[in-house]
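Possible race condition, two jobs.
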Amino acid sequence: MSHRTIEERIPQVVFACVRNGGRSVAARVLTEHYAQGRVIALSAGTQPGEHIHAEVAEVLERLGLDTSREQPKHLTTEMVAGSDLAITLGCGEECPYVPGVTYRDWPVDDPGGQDEPTVRRILADLDTRVRALLGELAPDLVLAPSVLAPD
């Protein structure tokens, strides 16, 4: 028998919005990029759309982040219950409440239908928030430089 106790559990965060086409997807993709497997990130919506916003996917792809597997999903109580943290991005009281899960609201603008500079500004806001969150969830993780850092 090894001297190690229970293996360190990987924290899970769910990013929730209404359509699951912009903010929550971007936050999930950014978290996955920086976390290097140290944090599990999910995204879902209370009323998921058919696909992620093209303008968001375009900017993320230009930043070198793959969005090809992103498909809007319906937010379930089980998803929230399996997470340590639920970050709400505009779904507020529509998000299922699960006792014991920590909720935080990120008041971030909706990038859907916006021009590229606006989408980039919103992604920069999410990038800053995600990097701070990872500093909290995985304090010893060395973060790669921001994908939105100036060249």
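Job #2 (started ~2 s after job #1):
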Amino acid sequence: MTRALVIVDVQNDFCEGGSLAVSGGTAVARAISAHVPAAGYAHVVATRDHHVDPGGHFAEQPDFLDTWPAHCVVGTAGVELHGDLDRRPIEAVFDKGEYAAAYSGFEGSFDGQELADWLRARDVDAVDVVGIATDHCVRATALDAVGAGFATRVLLHLTAGVAQSSTEAALDQLRAAGVELVGEVAQAA
């Protein structure tokens, strides 16, 4: 089995001090950086929200379900990967959501190639998914990974959730889809 790590949206705007901060985001960035060297992944990739004008995804009065405050806007510091995330092992960053909402890393592309195609071109058949937020983009990425035929695990201790109730619902959905859940979520408000 050839396993890759998919690091989901560990960006400045999703960590403490960002425009859509998730409690524990910075700790997740550090924990992922500590995890990677000894884990023996064949490949390591990251995803980023990369918004130019995502339409109704942004709202002045967000509902925090389908609409959100402006975040990860191209040209701002908030779009960048967090400084505590070691970028050296990351081979490619898949940007998503320029002109529409995009939660799954499988909606992103790097040099014109989508994530599933990039992984398949490298004979990857299994992925570990980590990052922010457990109940939104991590969930969507893991669901798309298993749907695309990858053996999929979410390493919960390397994720941070927005809220306890939505994180629990996401975990139920992941289990039902056949995603293997490892450990426990580091943070859920």
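The CA atoms of residues 58 and 68 lie 5 Å apart.
Logs attached separately.
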